[in-house]
Amino acid sequence: MNRTLVKKVAIIGCGPRGLSALESLYKFYVSNGTNYKLKIIVFERTGNFGNGQVYDQNQTSYNWLNLSERGLTIPEREAIVVDDINIDGFPSFQTWAKYEHTSDKSIDVFPQRATLGNYLNERFQSIKTVIENNGSIETYTSLITSLKYSNSKFELISDEDDSFTADEVVLTIGHQPTYNSAQINKWKNFVSQNSNLSLITETYPIESTLESIPQDNNEIGLRGFGLAMIDLSRSIAHYFGGHFEIIDEFTQKMKFHPSKNSFYKIFPFSLNGLPMAPKPINKKVDDLFLPTTQHFNILKANLESATLNAKQIQSESFLIDVMAQVITSVFIGLKDKTVKHSYNSEEILAITKSWISEGTSSSEICLSENLNPVAIMTEYAGMATNTLPISLDYCIGQVWRHCHPTLYKQLSYKEFSEDVMSKIIGLDNKLKRLTFGPPLASIQQLLAMIESGVMNLKIVDDPDILCTEKGWHLDSEDDTAVVTTMINTVLDPPKVLEVKSNLVTQLLNDDYIKPIHSELGIETYVDGIVALSDTDKKIPLALLGRLAKGTLFGVDAILECFNQRSDNWAKGVVKRLNNVTEVVGDKPEPTV
Fold first, then answer.
1. What is the Cα–Cα distance from 520 to 117, expressed in whole angstroms?
2. Where do the FAD-dependent urate hydroxylase HpyO/Asp monooxygenase CreE-like FAD/NAD(P)-binding domain residues begin and end (predicted)?
């Protein structure tokens, strides 16, 4: 086909979602008989095209994924032929990584984050190299700071005052800088007046954090008790010359050997002091928590029925009711593998609903929050290997994780009220310490560091914090610690009103985007097009990814980057540029 008209599409941010958007765009460009030549302009300020900052190829090997090779089911890219461009297919992650499932009893392998970065970058380069030779793509490491739309064209301005034009723009930006909390601001002011103290406000990149830890400050406070804290603790352990010894291959139990010259102590703390639960050790144990096909069908049907009139829903209780039924069935199916009890199914259902809603229960089938964190981690480690009786709360987390793909599909693009969507996402976030848990080896490393005396959890549960010239005094009911270095390991949530990047701030101020809720992200339609404050105004500006939290459910999952969401956007772009339709921002039901 002779294509003389050139249409430009700008992709701002090119981590995994930007890569997926690029692939989807070419897939639908070739299949729709377009009458124009497509030119893509890609911006990724880190230079990590396809993998972004989170999956930087050069990051420390101690940053681990919390998703195993078995679970990393990123699909292959099929070959694409368009005009004189022949884009080869690219293998799935598992094929690329030479993953083979040999036995359900084989211990799951959790790759380094850099390994996934290598895959994503290679996948991007494999398509970029081909279309670059045709002049169909340009890549820039510029940071886009401003975006304006007039006369059916976008003008993009970079931090270097370069100007670009485009017919369509998609924002595939991930983690964005946010304004500091009041606590962090207070600490920054405190440290500025006390040169003997050190405050590190961001965990990543960990290499920079490690280099910023003063060698003579031996007491380190870690604000947060989640995945970032685990990555950092493991890195600190190795950075100061320590090493881990596995003393039980199956349970992954370890012994930590600090360097003889190491005198540091680590003091993590969080608002509730509760540790994350590790994922099951292998497929055999993981399958104990896998709902049956019948369960999934019932779950899907119940969610469809419950959300038919999403506008009328008043709370998140509908989701609790639906999920509790599935979880109760799975828990009962575990039979003698659970904590001993005499409850019938109705009683277990009631306890399940209560635990999901409140996050705690006095029932003996749930681990008590009054247990110390070491005991909780030890119990969860035993459940992850099926060597200790399984509690209801651990079961809740693992079943909920298995149901995530169904929940993501069924709860995205629904017309819930702002408050209800906020509560649904809040509920899912509350369960993350059980659903998004780390590999079992990570929990065993923490336990080994605690046993060695390097890590101390005596002030882990919401300590009172007093700033003095000697350091941060952390006081809990049980003990006190004074730290001279404080590191923030709490990652910013995707609250668009708290984002301070120039581009997002400008888009908000100019009413190009609007937040769904003060606690959430930007409202978008099913094809990714942003919903403007002026409902009569429609422009081809789309958002795929983290800042769409609220419209989308499940924005932080790597597998959600390569799915129908990118395809929905790409279909709309190809049609609009081909003048097949002038409609922008359709609201069809999501594909399930």
1. 28
2. 10-176
Fold assignment, 5-177+494-577: FAD/NAD(P)-binding domain (3.50.50)
Name the residue among 396, 399, 384, 490 with its Cα closest to residue 439.
384
DSSP H/E element including 164: strand 163-166
β pairing state of 243-248 and 219-223: unpaired
Query: What is the residue whose two structure tokens read 């890195």?
Result: 235
> Of 549, 574, 418, which is closest to residue 492 (Cα–Cα)?
549
pLDDT tens-place string over residues 310-329:
888 999 999 999 999 999 99
The residue behind tokens 């949530």 is 493
Of 542, 494, 543, nearest in space to 521 by CA: 494
CATH class of 182-273+439-488: alpha beta
- Three-class secondary structure assignment of 202-252: CCCCHHHHHHHCCCCCCEEEEEECCHHHHHHHHHHHHHCCCEEEEEECCCC
Same fold, 5-177+494-577 and 182-273+439-488: yes
Q: Please give the Cα distance from 104 to 36 (Å, whole number).
A: 51
Question: Taking the model in full, what pTM does it have?
Answer: 0.92
- Structural domain spans, the chain: 5-177+494-577, 182-273+439-488, 283-435
- pLDDT tens digits, residue range 380-423? 999 999 999 999 999 999 999 999 999 988 888 787 887 888 88
For residue 460, give the nearest of 256, 234, 181, 266 by alpha carbon: 266
Which amino acid appears at position 50 of this protein? G
**Residue-wise DSSP of 426-470:** HHHHHTHHHHS---HHHHHHHHHHHHHTSB--TT-BS-EEEEETT
pLDDT tens per residue across span 351-362:
999 999 998 888
Tokens matching residue 42: 């890609």
Asked if 343 and 351 count as a contact pair (C-beta separation under 8 A), the reply is yes
Tell me the C-alpha distance between 574 and 27, whole Å: 10
